[in-house]
Amino acid sequence: MSASAVFILDMKGKPLICRNYKGDVNMAEIDHFMPLLMQKEEEGALTPLLTHGRVHFLWIKHSNLYLVATTLKNANASLVYSFLYKAVEVFSEYFKELEEESIRDNFVIVYELLDELMDFGFPQTTDSKILQEYITQQGNKLETGKSRVPPTVTNAVSWRSEGIKYKKNEVFIDVIESVNLLVNANGSVLLSEIVGTIKLKVFLSGMPELRLGLNDRVLFELTGRNKNKSVELEDVKFHQCVRLSRFDNDRTISFIPPDGDFELMSYRLNTQVKPLIWIESVIEKFSHSRVEIMVKAKGQFKKQSVANSVEIAVPVPSDADSPRFKTSVGSAKYLPEKNVVIWNIKSFPGGKEYLMRAHFGLPSVDKEEVEGRPPISVKFEIPYFTVSGIQVRYMKIIEKSGYQALPWVRYITQSGDYQLRTS
Q1: What average pLDDT does this structure show over 42-53?
Q2: Do 170-273+387-420 and 277-383 agree at the fold level?
Q3: Beta bridge partners of 81
């Protein structure tokens, strides 16, 4: 079973807009949601599912809004949450920013979208590109006798319209890997994982079939190839256009793509990643009147690669003042509202080592022992490089008119949740 009603509330819990799909839950039940949420928050027992009597509230928060689905039955919770997140995605595609103001400014479109996204509590058309074909942001003129359902809604390939034409047929493939890393004060890696996504930008005419080949270990084992340069993908999640039965049989990623931008797949790798940017820090105190922080950053990736837009956030005592900086490269600035020093390095080649020294004045009272020290966090982006070694081996494009199309591939590694604790 699925949702009975969906509500969009402001920060105070006041309903901005709602849609009753089944009529089996009293719409006034939503008044209990906010007091229940605040009570659970005070108790430190807040959960994504709240219950009042026989009614269950499944909720998510986005910007300054709460999206809440109510149900009486034992609903399929993961389906409801997927729907709420998908609704956020669709509204964001329509209004750029989804917040209270954009809901108030677009009541009519929001109602229309809620009608199309769900029917009798079950998700229906949730692809924003298809919805934009018949729910437009311009006022519709009434044309009698011309009412028709867009063919894509009743089509087997509901995510792509027919009759698309381009002068130049191209596919752009982005392989983006985020590195999540947590290193303790002794330098041991506590957590390391790679979260990857493959995004496509498709400019192809007609109804093409695409086949994507990766250096997937399971595929290499099935075909008896050398496994050395293959990658074992976990938690693989595909866009709805991928033929899953085909993938299960012979690991072929075969699909008719939507037009324009979309995320084809995501994956995860639980591998021991060598920290790409290694940070060492030394904090020295001088008779409680000043503190000196020395930070050393080293690029531990291939020399031919370069990390761009590196940002190293070094926490400092909350009562520090009168900062002075000296850096061997880049620039440093103090953000007193966040109690951090941000060291920016525009370009950081592999194998290089850089230093930053920061001097701060301190009041005579020592607070550091009480405060504890947050970890140093690092942001970066390394183009033309993947940590896992994943490779796009081929992209075949088959279309009945037989045109030639160019696939372009780009690899990017970036920081996810990348933190190093300090002693």
Answers
A1: 91
A2: yes
A3: none
